[in-house]
Amino acid sequence: MPERVLVIDDDEIVREVLVEHLENEGHNVIACSNGYRGLEIFKNEKFDLVILDLIMPGINGLEVLKEIKRFSPPTVAILITAFGSIENAVDAMRAGAFDYITKPFNLADVSFAVKRGLGVSKLEKENINLKRQLKNRYGFENIIGDSNAMQSIYSLVDKVAPTDSTVLILGESGTGKELIANIIHYNSERTSKPLVTVNCSAIPHELLETELFGHEKGAFTGAVSTKLGKFEIADGGTVFLDEIGDMTPGLQVKLLRVLQERAFERVGGTKTIKVDIRIIAATNKNLEDEVSTGRFREDLYYRLNVIPVQLPPLRERTEDLPLLCNYFIDRYCKKRKRPMMKISRETMSALANYSWPGNVRELENLIERLVVLKEDETIVMTDLPEKIAGGFNNHIDFKSAITNAINSGNIDFDKRVTDFEKYIISHAIKSAKGVKSRAARLLNIKRTTLVEKMKRLEIKE
After folding, report:
1. Are 239 and 196 in contact (CB under 8 A)?
2. Which of 165, 176, 214, 283 is the right S-S partner for 266, CB 3.0 to 4.6 Å?
C-alpha cells in the first residue's frame, strides 16, 4: 500500500506543488491549510509522515508538532521553514522533528527528506511490532503449570514485574530462569528499553569485566577503540546477569558498587558513568552455601537477594507434566506441520516417575525429538529412552515383588525396608548426578546422614 502523507501549510501554491509531486512519487497525500484542521485530521486517520509549515496563523508549526508528538510519539514530521526562521527550526528539531526543508525548496530535496523519513517510520513501526511480539511471547501465559508451586510463582512475578526492585531467580538448570527474567522485564515499565543478558559462566573471566563495563581506547593491547559495556547499553532498561554464582570475587566488588550507586568507570577510564538500570540475577547454585565458604560476597548476596524467586524443579511439580507435554507437542507439531500427537496413560506415568535432572528443558528436548522421529500419533513406552522407561519398569517390578510377598505371607519386613531405603537413596544419587549434597536435599536429610546410610547399606557412589 502507498505511504500516507499529511501536508499542513497555509500557502495554497506550496500545498498544491507538494501534493502533486508526492502523488507522482506514489504516495497517498492529504493536505490542509491550517494547524487546527491538520491536528483534527491527524487524530482521526493514520499517516506515515507529516510535512508542516513552521509559520502559520492561529497555531504555528511548533505547537502542532508538539501536539502530534504527544498524541503519537513515533510519527515522523518534516518542517518547512523560511531562511529567517532557522533558529525556530532548531527548536522544532529539539521538539522531535525529523528534518526541515528551507524555502524556497527544491523538489529533489523534498523527495530525499521524505524517503529518509519514511524509512525511519518503517523501522519505527517494525520496532514497535517487534516489541509487541516480544511482550506477547513473554506474557504470563507462557509460564506453564497449575500446581500450587507455579501458582505462587505467578503471584510473585505479577507483583514484582511493575517495580524496579532487584530480583534474584534461583533454581536448577532447565527450570526456566531466563524465561522468568524476560517476563519480568517485558511486563515492567522498562519494556520499551533494552533487556541485556549476560551469561557470567559463558564469558571468560578476563573478558567479563570489559563486557559489563566497557573500555576506553588504549586501555589494553588490542583496545583500538572505545567500547560500551552492557550496563551502558542497557541504560533505562534491564540487565539480566545469568549464572551470577560464577562471577569472580574481583568483579563481585565492582558489581556491588553498580547495585549501590548505579555508577561505574569503563576499564582504563576515569570518568564516572551513571546509568538507570534494573538488575535481575539468576543462579543454579546455593548462594548461602557459596557465602559460607567464602566464594561469594555476603554483602553482594544481600544486595541481590531483595526479592528471591525460587523456581521448583520439575520432579517437585509432576502434576504439571500433562500440561507441559501438551504445550510442547502442540508447539512442535505445528512447527513440523504434522497432526497433533498424544501420550498414552502408561507413558505419562513413566514420565511422572522420572526424576528429570534437566528439568523442563530436558522434557522439551524429549518431546521435540519424539515429534520429529515418530511416525504415528501416539507416544508409547517403547518410544521413551531406556533411562525413563527402564526406571519406571523397575519401579513397577519393585512394587509387584512386595505385593506378591505380602500376599504369600512370606515377607522379611526388615529386608524389604532396607531394599526400599537402598532404592530411594540410589535413585536420589543418580538424579543428583553423584553430588551427595544435592541428593541429600532431594531426600530432605542432612548430607552426613546420607553418607552414614550409604556406608551402612553399602551403596557405591
Report:
1. yes
2. 214
Q: What is the pLDDT along the chain (461 residues), one digit of tens a residue?
A: 788 999 999 989 999 999 999 999 999 999 999 999 999 999 999 899 999 998 888 898 889 999 998 888 888 999 888 765 667 667 777 778 888 888 888 899 899 999 999 888 888 776 666 656 555 556 666 688 888 889 899 999 999 999 999 999 999 999 999 999 999 998 999 988 899 999 999 999 889 999 999 999 988 888 889 999 999 999 999 999 999 999 999 999 999 999 999 999 999 999 999 999 999 999 999 999 999 999 999 999 999 999 999 999 999 898 999 999 999 999 999 999 999 999 998 899 889 888 899 999 999 999 999 999 988 899 998 899 988 887 666 655 556 656 656 666 666 677 667 777 887 888 788 777 778 888 888 888 888 888 888 888 888 76
Phi–psi pair at 134, nearest 5 degrees = -65, -40
* Vertex 133: Cα angle to 131 and 139 (nearest 5): 100
pTM of the model: 0.63
Residue 269 · residue 216 · CB < 8 Å: yes
End-to-end CA separation in angstroms for the chain: 69
Q: Could you give the CA distance from residue 111 to residue 318 in angstroms, rounded to a whole number? A: 63
C-beta of residue 192 within 8 angstroms of C-beta of residue 131: yes
Angle at 258 between CA 303 and CA 253, to 5 degrees: 75
The set of cell numbers assigned to 268 is 582504563
| Set of cell numbers at residue 6 | 499529511
Beta strand pairing call for 195-199 and 238-242 = parallel
Q: Which three cell numbers stand for residue 166?
A: 532487584
**359-373 helix and 321-336 helix, angle to the nearest 10 degrees:** 40
Beta carbons of 264 and 254 less than 8 angstroms apart: yes
Q: For residues 297 and 255, is the Cβ–Cβ distance under 8 A?
A: no
Element (H, E) at 168: strand 167-170
- Which residues, 6 or more positions from 216, have their beta carbon under 8 angstroms from its beta carbon? 223, 226, 266, 267, 268, 269
